[in-house]
Write a structure and sequence with these properties.
about 450 residues, alpha+beta, 2-methylcitrate dehydratase PrpD, 60s Ribosomal Protein L30, Chain: A, 2 domains, 21 helices, globular, MmgE/PrpD_sf_2, MmgE_PrpD_N, MmgE_PrpD_C, MmgE/PrpD family protein
C-alpha cells in the first residue's frame, strides 16, 4: 500500500472530464436494476432516520443546527427531516447525517468498508427543497450518481493511504457531486467542489472509534457538511482543485469503469441496527437457533465466534450507551440468543440494562480466523460454535452477513425492517405511505417533493 500519492501538478484533463461528463451530463443513464435498488436504499435510509429521531445524539445535532447553523435567507434554508425546523442547507444535511449515522442500520458498500447513503440522502433532501419540479426519477438518477462517485473516492483513498479513515473522508465527494448536479454547476465548479470536499473531509481514524465508541461514529455527519459546503463555495468561485483521489494517475483504475459498473446495486441493506462487522456472526447464530429449537439463553453454556480481525475488536462488555451497543459483538450476540433478532429497542433504554443479557455476555468469546480475514473487506463472514449445558456441540456453517451480494434478503424482510424502525416514531399510515414511495419514485409522474412532504411533521398521510 502506498503511503502517499504523488503530487498532482498537471492533472489528467481526460480523467476528470470523464467524471464531470458522468456527474453533470444531461443524458445520465442508470440501468433499471440500479435505479430500483437505489430507490430501496433511499426509503430504507429514511426508515433509519425516523428511528433515530429520539436518540440523544439526534436531539443534540438538530438543536445545535438550529442554534449555530441558521440560514441567512429562505433560499439558503432547508428543513430537517422528521423535525421540520429550517436551518442552513449544510446544517440540515449535517444534522440528519449525524442522526442517521448514530443508528447503525443504514446501508453500506463492502469494498469501501463504509457507508454512503447516510450522507448523500440528507444532502439530496437539502438541495432539492428549492426544486419543487424535480422528478422522482431525476432525484434517483442524481442519488445513484453520488453513490458511484463516493464509492470510487473511498476505494481510491483506502488504496493510497496507510490509515483507515471513516466514511466522511470520502462520501463528502459524493455529496459534492450531488450538490453540483442539482445546482447546475459547470465542470470547473464540480472540480473545485470535489477538491474542497477531499481537502476538508474528515480523515478521522475509524479504529479509534471502534476501540472507543462515541457519537462520532463514522464521520458521515461531517462528510455531509463538508460536501454541501464545498458545492456552495465552488458555486461562488472558491477554488480547491484538484481532488487527488479522483485525478491522480495512481487512482485512474478506480474510475475507469464509471458509468459501466454500478456499485450502487451492490450496497447492502442492514437487517440489524449494529456494526456490519458483527452481522455474519448474528446470522450464523440465528440459523443455529432455527435449526435447533432447544437453543436458548438457558440452554447455552458457551458460544465461540470465529470471525475477522476487525470484528473481533468490537466492544466486548455490557454497553453503557447506544453507541457502545452498536459497536459491540458479544452484546448483540446475547440479544440474538435471547430475542431471536436485534431491533432498535434492544440497543437503547431498558435494553442496555437487561440483567439477563448481562449474564449471557461472559459466555461468548470471539477470535479471528484466517479464512474469514482472507474474505474481508469484500466479504464479511463468520462461523459460530454453540455448546449447550448438556455438552452438545452445534457448529454453524461459514456464514456471510445477510442483506448484500453474498446473501440478499427478500423484499418482505426489508419492508419489515423499515416498519420496525418507524414503529413508535411515525403513524402506521404515514410509514406505509413513505414505503409506497419506493415504487412511486420510479414513475415519471412522481415529484420528489411528494416524498419530501411525507417526511416533514404535520403530514396526515
Amino acid at each position: 500500500m502506498n503511503q502517499h500519492l504523488n503530487p498532482v501538478a498537471l492533472p489528467s484533463e481526460a480523467q476528470f472530464a470523464a467524471i464531470a461528463d458522468f456527474a453533470l451530463g444531461a443524458d445520465l443513464s442508470i440501468p433499471d436494476h440500479a435505479l430500483q435498488h437505489c430507490s430501496t436504499l433511499l426509503i430504507d435510509t429514511l426508515g433509519v432516520a425516523a428511528g433515530a429521531t429520539v436518540l440523544e445524539v439526534g436531539h443534540i445535532a438538530r438543536d445545535f443546527a438550529v442554534d449555530f447553523h441558521a440560514a441567512g435567507s429562505p433560499e439558503n434554508a432547508a428543513s430537517m427531516l422528521f423535525d421540520g425546523r429550517k436551518v442552513s442547507l449544510p446544517g440540515a444535511a449535517w444534522a440528519l447525517a449525524t442522526q442517521i449515522d448514530n443508528l447503525d442500520g443504514h446501508d453500506g458498500y463492502n469494498k469501501t468498508k463504509g457507508h454512503i447513503g447516510c450522507a448523500v440522502v440528507p444532502a439530496l433532501f437539502a438541495f432539492a427543497e428549492t426544486q419543487p419540479d424535480l422528478t422522482g426519477l431525476d432525484a434517483l438518477r442524481t442519488l445513484a450518481m453520488s453513490y458511484e462517485i463516493a464509492a470510487r473516492a473511498g476505494l481510491a483513498l483506502h488504496a493510497t493511504v496507510s490509515d483507515y479513515h471513516t466514511s466522511g473522508a470520502w462520501n463528502a465527494l459524493g455529496v459534492a457531486a450531488l450538490g453540483c448536479r442539482l445546482k447546475g454547476a459547470s465542470a470547473d465548479q464540480l472540480r473545485h467542489a470535489m477538491g474542497l470536499a477531499e481537502y476538508h473531509g474528515p480523515r478521522s481514524q475509524m479504529m479509534r472509534e471502534i476501540d472507543n465508541p462515541t457519537m462520532l461514529h463514522d464521520g458521515s455527519g461531517m462528510g455531509a457538511l463538508v460536501g454541501c459546503s464545498a458545492t456552495l463555495l465552488a458555486m461562488r468561485g472558491f477554488t480547491g482543485a484538484p481532488a487527488i483521489t479522483a485525478e491522480a494517475d495512481e487512482v485512474a483504475g478506480y474510475w475507469s469503469d464509471l458509468g459501466q459498473s454500478w456499485t450502487v446495486a451492490e450496497n447492502y441493506i442492514k437487517p440489524y441496527p449494529s456494526c456490519r462487522w458483527g452481522h455474519a456472526a448474528l446470522d450464523a447464530l440465528q440459523q443455529v437457533m432455527r435449526d435447533n429449537p432447544q437453543v436458548n439463553q438457558n440452554s447455552v453454556a458457551s458460544i465461540e465466534v470465529r470471525t475477522f480481525d476487525e470484528a473481533a475488536r468490537l466492544f466486548a462488555g455490557m454497553p453503557e450507551s447506544t453507541t457502545q451497543a452498536q459497536y459491540s459483538l458479544q452484546f448483540v450476540m446475547a440479544v440474538m440468543l435471547k430475542h431471536g433478532t436485534v431491533a432498535p429497542a434492544h440497543i437503547a433504554g431498558a435494553g442496555l440494562k437487561d440483567p439477563e443479557i448481562a449474564t449471557i455476555i461472559p459466555k461468548i468469546t470471539a477470535k479471528a480466523a484466517q479464512a474469514h480475514n482472507a474474505r474481508f473487506p469484500e466479504g464479511r463472514w463468520s462461523d459460530v460454535e454453540v455448546v449447550l449445558t448438556d455438552g452438545t456441540r452445534l457448529q454453524s456453517e461459514d456464514t456471510p452477513a445477510s442483506g448484500g451480494p453474498d446473501a440478499w434478503r427478500p423484499d418482505a424482510d426489508i419492508e419489515a425492517k423499515f416498519h420496525s424502525f418507524c414503529e413508535g416514531r411515525l403513524s402506521e399510515t404515514r410509514a406505509k405511505s413513505i414505503w409506497a414511495m419506493r415504487d412511486a419514485m420510479l414513475s415519471p409522474e412522481t415529484r420528489f417533493s411528494d416524498l419530501a412532504k411525507l417526511v416533514n411533521p404535520g403530514c396526515d398521510a
